[in-house]
Amino acid sequence: MLKILIPTLLLIPTSWLAKAKWLWPTTLLHSFIITLFSLAWLKNTSETNWSTLNPYMATDPLSSPLLTLTCWLLPLMILASQNHLAQDPLVRQRIYITLLVTLQLSLIMAFAATELTMFYVMFETTLIPTLILITRWGNQMERLNAGTYFLFYTLASSLPLLITLLALQNKTGTLSLLIIQLLGPIPISPYVNIIWWTTSLLAFLVKMPLYGVHLWLPKAHVEAPIAGSMILAAVLLKLGGYGMMRMMLILSPLAKELCYPFIILALWGVLMTSSICLRQTDLKSLIAYSSVSHMGLVAAAILIQTPWGLTGALILMIAHGLTSSALFCLANTNYERTHSRTMILTRGSQMILPLMATWWLITCLANLALPPLPNLMGELIIISALLGWSWWTIIFTGAGALITATYSLYMYLMTQRGPVPNHMISMNPSHSREHLLLTLHLLPLLLLVFKPTTIWGSAY
Amino acid sequence: MSAWRRLHVKVRRAHGLFTSRRVTEQYTWMYGPSTLGQNLSTGKPLRNDFFKELEAQLAAMRKKAADALPGSSWSPFDINPNLPPERADIVIIGGGVMGWSIAYWLKQKERVREGVKVIVVERDLTYSQASTVLSAGGIRQQFSLPENIHLSLASADFMRNINEHLGVLNEDPVDLQFNQSGYLFLASEEVAHIMEENYSTQRQVGAKVTLLSPTQLKEKFPWINTDGVALASYGLENEGWFDPWSLLNAFRRKAMSMGVIQCCGEVTDFKYTVQMPKGLEYQMVECAIVVNAAGAFSGKLAEMLGISSNPKDTIAGTPVPVEPRKRYIYVVHCPDGPGLDTPFLIDYSGMYFRREGLGGNYITGASPKEADEPDTSNLEVDHQFFEDSVWPRLAYRVPAFEKLKVTSAWAGFYDYNTFDQNGIIGDHPVINNMYFATGFSGHGLQQSPAAGRAVAELILDGNFKTLDMRGLGFRRIMAQEPILERNIL
């Protein structure tokens, strides 16, 4: 663990001491090396499931894919931000990279935490760099509103979690995940346990986001700069899912009745947000709502607490992380050229940038869960698990899958096909940096087709 | 000692309060219930009465609640609201009738609500120097270029059904005061053949025009002196004049109701091709498309693109040939003048006049010769020009105008296209995201609805859909192929 944490920590002095010409290549290379080391986490050979164990941090098959995804994303974020930060003063570029690295650190510590307290503190810590990214480097006036929504939704829902964790510590004497998973059901008085169940999960449900409390997500995703959108979509949402999976071990016997309203909300959210996608005019907003839709499936799968549900949730989280981040990168390449996110003004780019159209196609197909990509694996396993729980859910999940396919194809056709507007004729050609960025997003996705068990979690 | 004094003062103050209340109570008691219902004072009430203003208070509470809910645009940080937003999709420079027409059509053609974010930048919201409001307001189809005829015909159709297009719910209907009295062109012997050729073009395109011989002219309009007139061309339908201010406001009101943002500011610079700061307080607006509808000042705006730094005979160095030209309009009063069916008469000598209102007032003017173009640094009126150039020709053509009185006059700018005096509609060849809708040289107002639609189609559909205006594009300026109107004057 320290062999990843200390290099990541030292990336901060690197970004401050590197010469201006070498700032981006250095940080990129450094973060790539960290990523290569982090791939070692994917090998889980322990019988108790916990590897790289020390009193405060550990990895297990649930957290190691998410950890690797987090480490994988840092070089990608640095790669994506290089262009739009080029005209900022040097100090601001350094601050930007520092923010990304602090976010990375808190995320690694959050996913690797064994104590729920450390997890909670790191969970809250991730809010601050993200807020700074959105409000300082976002593009429009609305980013202030977006930052406020993001901060207060998450903060307000996670403060009850703090109380719950303290109460739990009081009752059981420990908050270590290693011990809690072995405890039996925790006796709590009959009416308080409902409140207790809700408060422990609310923070994660807001983070996922669940449909009723998802309003912060379109705002935050749209107003954030590209690195902000990438990290939000790829990892921060999964923090909610991961937290839910960990917390529900403790909440076990209550989950059977209390999860009903949330499963219904999640499934309804899948349908609703997919339909909203069809009516979006703003490209980033479309991708943001598609994130909500996929995460609704994940939330429903985690709430039913079956082995297949948890497996499917984890697979979909990893696959969606890579796909959604890739979509945001593609939208950003469009935005950097035309300075507009409106889809009606940026059509027909297949004629102008044909190679980018390839990436658009693969990513949109990944979004609509094309076999044999892990997106389909995750969705299929989740749908089957939900079907086992109740066969009425097939209406929601089936219709949701249909509408997902519709809006993914709509996004592809709107941006790539159609008449080329006059103002797009002389766009800058694609940079090789952008091709590298998208390759690095899609390559893991393709490799996971061959060994999906890496991301199958502890149920395998 | 001092403590006691302070106490004494306090008591007096309290006593004062007490006294005033007693006075009002006495007042109401003495004068009985009949005056209680009637509020005789005309000032505001002393205290806020919650129940009297219940409606207003409830509305305020509802508004506060709506602001607090998600989905409202209330923001705790109220940064200067006069500045334009930091980002927009399409920025239209120039808030005249052309700019607002383009804004309206862009919103009309977006297929979903809030599809494109449009802002219109106008540096003078009083429109004191804008060509739109200083125009004579005429509309005619009597051009020689088919494109011009199409534009005017479509615009006339738009304006006849203006409330279908620009009517806003719960607001007053639009009244353009469109007097369809027609245009009357008079041709002398030398230019009569041009008029005949134009007539056949116009009829072919669909304009409702007719040719009149001098005798028919005298029959129809007995007040005309037909000396020197060989042929006259009279528009029967869709020609006349209207109120340009009403059209501008109708477009503006409708466009703003559809979500177009209006900014008061001046564009001072372009960065690369997409960002432009404006106003004394700098605000960079990041946008995808810029539309130059700045009218008479379009040429100066295009200079900011750095065209002049390129060599003159390259495509990149071709300047936008629009400059302001000053034209005068004089309002004259003549009680014995021509009647209510007076058309917009344009004489071959360059003089024109039309009826204004119902009180015997007329608007008149003339095109100056190329050599005597007036100075464009201000909008001062030269009355000598009326005495020298307009009145003699006016009096010659209409004898009744020998006795008239000039009641008022103003001057306005033409956005004069020095190249071929016809509009430029299209995108710039080198700077791909700048579109032009300027250079109409005096017939911009009448073509504004159709020209706005053409530009909106170009931006959103990529091509002209309803009317093909490729002939009016920038290409002809680069290729140095002018498409001149074959006017008779």
TrEMBL record, chain A:
Keywords: Electron transport, Membrane, Mitochondrion, NAD, Respiratory chain, Translocase, Transmembrane, Transmembrane helix, Transport, Ubiquinone. Residues 1-110 form the NADH:ubiquinone oxidoreductase chain 4 N-terminal domain. The chain crosses the membrane at residues 21-42, 62-83, 95-113, 119-138, 150-168, 188-210, 222-240, 260-279, 286-304, 310-331, 352-370, 390-415, 436-459. It is a multi-pass membrane protein. Its main location: mitochondrion. Pfam families: Oxidored_q5_N, Proton_antipo_M. It is found in: Mitochondrion membrane. It catalyses: a ubiquinone + NADH + 5 H(+)(in) = a ubiquinol + NAD(+) + 4 H(+)(out). PANTHER family: NADH-UBIQUINONE OXIDOREDUCTASE CHAIN 4 (PTHR43507:SF20). This is NADH-ubiquinone oxidoreductase chain 4. It comes from Monopterus albus (Swamp eel). The gene is ND4.
